[in-house]
Design goal:
Elements (H helix, E strand, L loop, with lengths): L2 H9 L1 H34 L1 H4 L2 E3 L2 E2 H39 L6
Antiparallel strand pairs: 1-2
């Protein structure tokens, strides 16, 4: 790809929106996951008796929370994929369409 094409793509408002939105959304989801994970680790470190409470048989609150963390990661991944398959793909298509043929559209 030549310098002119790169400059043209970087100047495209769709590209700027894609980069800004994808970055901020990705960081938001990452921070949510970090809070969930480190919250669990903090419980393990500072309140081990609270997560050791048995709910049924040998199933403890800690096990339930561990499963909830895994499910939260799956849900957040799904949220990102839905956004990527919708808005981000539409923006990418608009960028490609606008820059095919040397940007003469």
């Amino acid at each position: 790809m030549d310098e002119a094409a790169i400059a043209r793509i970087e100047a495209d408002p769709n590209y700027q929106e894609l980069v800004q939105d994808r970055g901020s959304f990705g960081w938001t989801l990452s921070i949510i996951m970090l809070v969930i994970y480190y919250g669990f680790i903090a419980l393990v470190a500072f309140a081990p008796n609270a997560i050791a409470v048995k709910l049924a048989g040998s199933i403890t609150i800690g096990i339930v929370l561990g499963i909830a963390i895994i499910l939260a990661a799956i849900v957040l991944t799904g949220v990102y994929v839905m956004r990527a398959n919708g808005k981000y793909d539409d923006l990418t298509k608009a960028i490609v369409d606008a820059n095919l043929g040397g940007g003469r559209k």
